[in-house]
């Protein structure tokens, strides 16, 4: 392996590690339930009215009883509500 290939491989590794670390930090950020923003089939858990009990079962976009986890403090900016 020549010197230039070794340097490229090292740079790719550093960039990949940075991306992994950033994702891990985002996962640890405080989150809150945001109602009314989930897309059909993309809710995070059960509906607040009991119409379904699992993630991924939202029937329509923006149902007020379906929710997604979002970064704390961003729900209102996304057009959602903190309670159904």
Descriptive key words:
2 strands; alpha+beta; 84 residues
Explain the overall architecture.
This protein has one helix spanning 3-28; strands spanning 31-35, 67-71. With 84 residues, it is α+β, with helices and mostly antiparallel strands. The protein has one domain.
Helix and strand topology:
Layout: H1 3-28, E1 31-35, E2 67-71
Antiparallel strand pairs: 1-2
Largest sheet at a glance?
Answer: 2 strands, antiparallel
Terminal CA distance reads: 59 Å
Strand order of the largest sheet: 1-2
Low-confidence stretches: none
**Count of extended strands:** 2
Strand content: 5-15%
Write down the domain tally: 1
Find the structural class using helix and strand composition.
Answer: alpha+beta
Helical fraction equals: 25-40%
Name the quaternary structure.
single chain
Shape: elongated
Element order: H for helix, E for strand: HEE
Average pLDDT value? 83
What is the count of DSSP helices, taking H or I runs of 4+ residues? Answer: 1
Backbone CA Rg: 19 Å
Task: Write a brief structural summary.
The chain is 31% helix and 12% strand. The protein has one helix at 3-28; strands spanning 31-35, 67-71.
């Amino acid at each position: 392996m020549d010197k230039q290939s070794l340097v490229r491989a090292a740079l790719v590794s550093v960039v990949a590690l940075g991306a992994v670390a950033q994702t891990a930090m985002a996962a640890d950020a405080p989150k809150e339930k945001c109602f009314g923003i989930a897309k059909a089939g993309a809710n995070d858990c059960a509906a607040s009215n009991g119409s379904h009990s699992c993630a991924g079962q939202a029937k329509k976009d923006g149902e007020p009883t379906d929710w997604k986890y979002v970064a704390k403090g961003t729900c209102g900016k996304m057009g959602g509500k903190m309670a159904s």
